[in-house]
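Budget justification aside, the reviewers requested a transparent look at the raw inputs and outputs of the sequence design task funded under Objective 1. We therefore reproduce one unedited record. The lines immediately below are the structure tokens for a 341-residue chain.
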């Protein structure tokens, strides 16, 4: 049995999800006629208490469309230095939006209102126009950390004061809300746009959403077409998204519990120097001198456990829907046998 903890994107549709996909009513979504895509978009906008939503093929496209709508060429985006929008979207902010980026040094990927305010450019002709603040929740490189809502509200106050838009890359927003217990619509309230991945912890094979007011989504729909992301009978995929929202949110707590147990197991290993406190479904740990992540991952692979490198001596493991209790028991047994001697 291979235990794959490289990412929560690796899940395959469950039987129930596949049945929902097979049963989907479809039409041409570019004509606005796919009832299942429309149902998914309505469901998402209601869930987050906004006017409208748009289904996209990927989370990257969702973020890049949002940035495109919120900025003009030459504007500046403020985000954390580890942000997915900056590090893992192929330089898309520059390529798609011709915008510059101000990178902040946050705590595990989370930035503060104070830091945002200090990095807003003065409005004179020497400077790029600061236009957008983009948060990430939970943070990927930050190891699944999430925002305290009081800080989000402070950031919003700064955005209002300086007339900036506020976006959140919520690829793993339901992991954050699982821990805080907050309603999606209460969380969404300060944001001009929210992107949400259906294909991470929620277990859909494909798809993300952008959520915002009607005018924002109308413009986003235009850029989705421009970016090549307007799909035809996408309802077969959207059905997986509806199923995921209905069935796979509550179980995220199990992923978080599994991640904490994995954290306890690895932090006790002689090769492990330290572990970032496990807050959601991402486990990140640093190795001691003499052990590289490449060597550690190779040894893990030999016993059928896959993880990913997050630096020369840093390893990341992510729990998800396809990681079972049986696998957790196996993980503990194999890891202890291999690394504790
Ligand atoms: C995965 C992820 C995305 C989007 O990824 P896609 O693979 O394009 O769907 C965006 N932001 C964060 C933080 C992510 O982890």
């Amino acid at each position: 049995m291979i235990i794959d903890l490289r990412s929560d994107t690796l899940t395959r549709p469950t039987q129930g999800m596949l049945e929902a996909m097979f049963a989907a009513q479809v039409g041409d979504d570019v004509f606005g006629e796919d009832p299942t895509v429309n149902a998914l978009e309505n469901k998402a906008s209601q869930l987050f208490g906004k006017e409208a939503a748009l289904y996209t093929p990927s989370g990257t496209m969702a973020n890049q469309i949002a940035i495109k709508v919120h900025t003009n060429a030459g504007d500046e985006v403020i985000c954390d230095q580890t942000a997915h929008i900056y590090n893992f979207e192929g330089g898309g902010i520059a390529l798609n939006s011709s915008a510059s980026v101000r990178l902040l040094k946050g705590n595990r990927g989370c930035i503060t209102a104070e830091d945002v305010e200090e990095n807003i450019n003065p409005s004179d002709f020497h400077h790029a126009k600061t236009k957008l603040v983009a948060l990430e929740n939970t943070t990927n490189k930050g190891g699944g950390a999430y925002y305290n809502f009081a800080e989000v509200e402070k950031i919003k106050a700064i955005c209002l004061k300086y007339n900036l838009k506020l976006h959140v890359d919520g690829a793993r927003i339901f992991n954050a809300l699982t821990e805080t217990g907050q309603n999606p619509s209460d969380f969404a309230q300060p944001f001009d746009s929210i992107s949400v991945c259906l294909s991470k912890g929620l277990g859909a094979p494909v798809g993300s959403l952008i959520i915002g007011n009607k005018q924002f989504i109308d413009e986003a729909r235009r850029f989705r077409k421009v970016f090549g992301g307007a799909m035809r009978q996408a309802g077969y995929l959207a059905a997986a998204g509806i199923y995921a929202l209905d069935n796979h949110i509550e179980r995220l707590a199990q992923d978080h519990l599994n991640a904490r147990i994995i954290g306890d197991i690895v932090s006790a290993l002689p090769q492990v120097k330290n572990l970032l406190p496990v807050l959601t479904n991402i486990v990140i740990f640093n190795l001691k001198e003499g052990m590289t992540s490449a060597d550690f991952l190779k040894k893990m692979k030999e016993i059928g456990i896959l993880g990913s490198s997050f630096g020369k001596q840093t390893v990341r493991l992510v729990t998800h829907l396809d990681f079972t209790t049986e696998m957790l028991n196996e993980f503990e047994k194999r890891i202890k046998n291999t690394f504790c001697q």
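The chain has two domains: 13-247, 251-339. The mean pLDDT is 97. Computational costs for records of this kind are itemized in the attached budget.
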